[in-house]
Structure to design on (378 residues):
């Protein structure tokens, strides 16, 4: 029966189970939260605490773990970037904090390499900040950075997952450029959490604020944190939801409210991620990928690659299709998988299907492998 593994809570409201082959996808609810983290959330739910104290102590715990001066827990990495940018523009000036997204009389320009533009840089402009493209599709020169800097330039935005891509400056060199010119650097490091040294490498990079998502560490879908210097984190914090309540400063972050359980879960998930047996985690993923590879072996009109893509923290597979010979497009195959019962969600990469296996439920790799073979058999 197709719905036999669908939790009753979903069945009661008429929602079918989805097989998540997209890894920690927001569209599918983020990650699988471990029993340890769930227990912590349940325990936190049993009593009340002073939220300012919880945020302060949780931030200290996170900062200690990642090797930063300070940290602040946020509802996701997107918000972490937005609060970071807000804090750089406003500092600790409550009048400015209350005016965002009106940035009049603030330094509100943030530079980003044209070849580093990505969907989530929208997190910068929702604050009222202006995102200024620098350079071209093939890269950016120091002269072009200097030509883009004026009296209203506040900082530089750096998507860490693009480091090493053609034309992208190494973070170390960009930090040096920014420091020489009195600019701040905000790093989007959402899923740069493995190998573990990436976390501390980033916090020790000299960047002013580094932003992470908790879902890639097994935390809630709606959690993350920013970390960096005490001064920069404090300014970001003043733009958050709690300062609206206790300081009446009309911060733009009032809508970025968090539950006490999510704050606790972020700390516990980070601790668990750092202590996790990652060798076994990756071995499990490799075994699942081999099940799929074996099921597809011998089929014409396709080619398989598996390993690490886009600097991601888990292993993935790409299945490249000869759409003409197969008589079906990547999009059509992806849609057919999704529309089944249960729906199987993979990524449509244009020329390939991208498959993540870290969020599969036990045994789902066999169902996924069988459905893929059916879809790709001529």
């Amino acid at each position: 029966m197709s719905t036999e593994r669908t939790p009753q809570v979903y069945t009661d409201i008429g929602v079918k189970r989805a097989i998540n082959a997209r890894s920690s996808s927001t569209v599918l609810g983020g990650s699988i939260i471990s029993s340890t983290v769930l227990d912590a959330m349940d325990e936190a739910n049993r009593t009340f605490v002073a939220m300012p104290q919880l945020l302060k102590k949780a931030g200290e715990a996170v900062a200690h773990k990642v090797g930063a001066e300070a940290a602040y827990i946020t509802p996701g990495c997107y918000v972490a970037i937005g609060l970071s940018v807000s804090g750089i523009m406003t500092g600790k000036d409550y009048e400015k904090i209350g005016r965002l997204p009106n940035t009049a009389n603030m330094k509100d320009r943030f530079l980003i390499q044209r070849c580093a533009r990505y969907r989530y840089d929208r997190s910068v402009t929702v604050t009222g900040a202006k995102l200024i493209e620098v350079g071209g599709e093939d890269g950016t020169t120091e002269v072009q950075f200097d030509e883009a800097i004026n009296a209203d330039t506040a900082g530089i935005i750096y998507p860490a997952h693009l480091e090493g891509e053609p034309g992208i400056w190494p973070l170390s060199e960009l930090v040096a450029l920014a420091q020489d010119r009195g600019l701040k650097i905000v790093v989007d490091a959402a899923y740069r959490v493995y190998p573990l040294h990436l976390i501390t490498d980033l916090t020790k990079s000299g960047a002013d604020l580094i932003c992470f998502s908790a879902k890639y560490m097994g935390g809630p879908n709606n959690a993350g944190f920013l970390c960096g210097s005490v001064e920069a984190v404090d300014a970001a914090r003043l733009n958050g939801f709690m300062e609206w309540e206790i300081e009446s400063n009309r911060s733009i972050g009032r809508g970025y409210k968090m539950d006490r359980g999510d704050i606790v879960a972020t700390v516990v998930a980070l601790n668990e991620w750092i202590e996790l047996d990652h060798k076994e985690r990756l071995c499990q993923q490799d075994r699942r990928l081999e099940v799929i590879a074996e099921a597809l072996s011998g089929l014409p009109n396709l080619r398989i690659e598996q390993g690490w893509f886009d600097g991601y923290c888990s292993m993935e597979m790409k299945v490249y299709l000869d759409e003409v010979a197969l008589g079906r497009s990547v999009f059509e195959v992806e849609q057919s998988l999704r529309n089944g019962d249960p729906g199987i969600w993979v990524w449509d990469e244009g020329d390939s299907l991208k498959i993540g296996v870290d969020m599969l439920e036990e045994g789902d790799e066999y169902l996924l492998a069988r459905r893929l073979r059916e879809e790709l058999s001529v």
Observations:
- The mean pLDDT is 95.
- The CA atoms of residues 79 and 123 lie 7 Å apart.
